[in-house]
Design goal:
Blueprint (H helix, E strand, L loop, with lengths): L1 H7 L4 H31 L2 H24 L5 H29 L1
Helix pairs in contact: 2-3, 3-4
């Protein structure tokens, strides 16, 4: 979407760099979150799951940025970001339940 918007619309260069940097940060956070979540789930450890939960919240904040504060927000951006936030909320609640199950 960012590539499309940079080609079709007048997208300020400094804002494009910021949006791309945050998008790459989101990808790095997602890979790290999945690693900790998988490790914590397979080993039934609370610490990696808690780290995954923190990264889930950080990813949700980035999704809010792309939903509300991005330079150009298209309807497709809104739909994708709202879907991502819904799934992040579900993931966070399931992580809390799993951490509670592992501690008891």
């Amino acid at each position: 979407m960012i590539l499309y918007k940079s080609q079709v619309f007048s997208y300020p260069q400094d804002h494009l760099v910021l949006d791309l940097a945050l998008l790459f940060l989101m990808g790095i956070l997602e890979a790290t979150r999945l690693y900790f979540g998988t490790k914590g789930n397979l080993m039934e450890l609370e610490a990696p799951l808690a780290a995954s939960l923190v990264l889930t919240v950080a990813g949700a904040l980035l999704a809010v940025y792309f939903l509300l504060w991005q330079t150009l927000v298209l309807q497709a951006d809104s739909i994708l970001s709202a879907t991502l936030l819904t799934l992040r909320g579900l993931e966070a609640s399931l992580q809390v339940v799993t951490i509670a199950a592992f501690t008891s």
